[in-house]
Amino acid sequence: MRQPREIVSRTVRLPEVSGITMRNARLMLRNAGIEPSAVKLRYEEAYRPEDEVIRQQPPAGSLVPVDAPVELVVSRRNLLHNLPQVFQKADRTGGHFLREFLWVFDHIFADVQRHLDRVHTYFDPLESPVEFLSWLAGWVALGIDQDWPEPKQRKLIRQAIDMYGFRGTVRGLKLFLSIFTGVEPEVTENAWPYEGFRVGETVIGIDSIILPPVDLAHCFMVEVPAAYTDTGDEEILKIHDIIRMEKPAHTAYYLTFAAAPERQEFTGFVIGGHRVGTEDTGRVGRASESYASPAADDPQSETE
Q1: pLDDT of residue 5
Q2: Phi, psi at residue 106, to the nearest 5°?
Q3: What are phi and psi of 224, to 5 degrees?
């Protein structure tokens, strides 16, 4: 009977992490393939900077399974130094029970202390952890979409207080949109792209459009200097959300793109000038004014 094949775990070669900070050592081990849960810490007092890796076990260059425990000996000041001098004396044999006992609390609360040591970075939009950005935005009453790129979120949070001073103005709208899109849009006030229905000039079904009442005094156009085809649907929806959030409530807006495709010109189907199935436009209508009759182009027609 054939024996089942033994499963061999994947092995990796340990990098050299001695002499660097504990945080960088963990990153190097994770990038090498070592499971983060397999990294164990042991603190020891030494004349080295705090949180620097003194030595590692197994040594650098060893081939170990990815789930094998890796011990890092880290330099750290013992809590014993925070007690009165009378408690810091060793016994007759040179041992110190209280010092060894306090290492237990160092292993429990060291990570909490590290967070407290860098708590000031949580209030800086450029250094705050990603998971804390939504809380930081809430403190300045700024609603940001979690789908926005991280650099844009940080930049918006950093400038939120300054933008409140000119919110609802052209300057504020352009600044908000430029942060999100990466380009500065053009905002034209008291303008609308359509002039409305005009008798004798507007053709029903061709260039006619039905709009609600539009007051040019309360209208503006936003032109983004980017191609419409280069912008995704989700990004366009976010641009609309930004405009609706930053514009005055009583105004109406129209969003356009600078590199939008040209509007198609509609021409009518002319009998004698187009042939069905070839270059005809597929529309039946009035002949174009630029179309000349065959008699006007034929020189022989004048002699007949």
Answers
A1: 57
A2: -65, -40
A3: -90, 120
